[in-house]
Design goal:
The chain is of the alpha/beta class. It contains ten helices and ten strands. The chain has an eight-stranded parallel β-barrel. It has a two-stranded antiparallel ribbon with strand order 8-9. The longest helix is centred in the C-terminal third of the chain and has 23 residues. Bound molecules: magnesium ion (MG).
Length: 281
């Protein structure tokens, strides 16, 4: 893979990504895939999907897990419903995430990603230990499949994330850095955060956002790439400085407006290519 191939977040039958065809039409060579529904995660559909990727000349770089019942409606709802943190659904979701890992293996993909949920900041809290335990179980399962686990950023500050990854003590646990999420959740200035967690960053989202007037209380606003407050040129410059060479995966979650979504992803791809050319020469 050449340095910094453009990528896009895609979905088959679940999640907010674009269809595979959009990547092809826009000439985008890599994708992350939102894991499809359980009924689709069969060896047969993996084979079909793989031959489609081959036909389109697209490379799969990460399979992202997501779960029934998750809602990103507002920040308190995220805290109650997202990831492996909510206690009522934790065991079932761990099991499902293991199945997603197995499906990703069928797709020949060595990275799975997820939003873990809001990890408690008090490292002496029983819940903190429980989240360490469930994360270790997931990492160990992924390890058997020769996979790394990438945690999506946003719900924790950079310092909290470093602490958590260190405490997990697993060598296949890394970060999928999303600069817009830092702004949307109000968890820190994204460039500064990226510099802090740089050594763990193994995949990224290229997404933009504006700060809320009450950061951490209400959502910021997701924006087309280049129109928010991330500073995309500085973002890529910083990725260069931390030695990140992987895909630049565009994420734009407005599936209710597919035409606009496609157009904005096209613009984002162009913008990233221009900045890439300036930085890499
Ligand atoms: Mg993201």
């Amino acid at each position: 893979m050449t340095e910094w191939p453009i990528g896009v977040f895609t979905s088959v039958d679940a999640g907010l990504g674009v269809k595979l065809e959009v990547a092809q039409e826009l000439g985008i060579p890599t994708i992350q895939l939102h894991a499809p529904h359980r009924s689709t995660r069969t060896p047969e559909s993996a084979e079909r999907f793989l031959s489609k990727l081959e036909e389109l000349g697209i490379q799969l770089t990460c399979v992202f897990g997501g779960f029934e019942g998750e809602s990103y409606a507002d920040i308190p709802t995220v805290s109650k419903t997202v990831g492996l943190v909510p206690q009522e659904t934790r065991a079932a979701r761990l099991q499902e995430m293991k199945e997603i890992s197995d499906f990703a293996r069928l797709l020949g993909c060595d990275v799975i990603g997820l939003h873990l949920g809001f990890v408690p900041h008090d490292t002496t809290a029983p819940l903190y230990q429980e989240i360490l335990d469930v994360t270790r179980l997931l990492c160990d399962h992924a390890g058997v499949n020769d996979q790394a686990v990438h945690l999506e950023t946003g719900q924790e500050t950079a310092d909290a994330l470093l602490q958590f990854i260190g405490d997990t003590k697993r060598d296949n646990l890394f970060i999928n850095f999303d600069p817009a999420n830092m702004i949307l959740y109000g968890t820190g200035e994204p460039i500064e955060a990226l510099q802090k967690v740089g050594k763990y960053v193994r995949s990224v989202h290229c997404k933009d956002a504006k700060w809320s007037s009450q950061p951490g209380v209400t959502w910021g606003q997701e924006m087309p790439l280049g129109q928010g407050q991330v500073d995309i040129a500085k973002y890529l410059q910083t990725l260069h400085e931390i030695g990140y060479h992987g895909p630049l995966t565009i994420e734009r979650e407005i599936p209710q407006e597919p035409d606009r979504q496609k157009a904005e992803i096209g613009h984002a791809s162009q913008l990233l290519s221009e900045i890439r050319a300036k930085i890499l020469g």
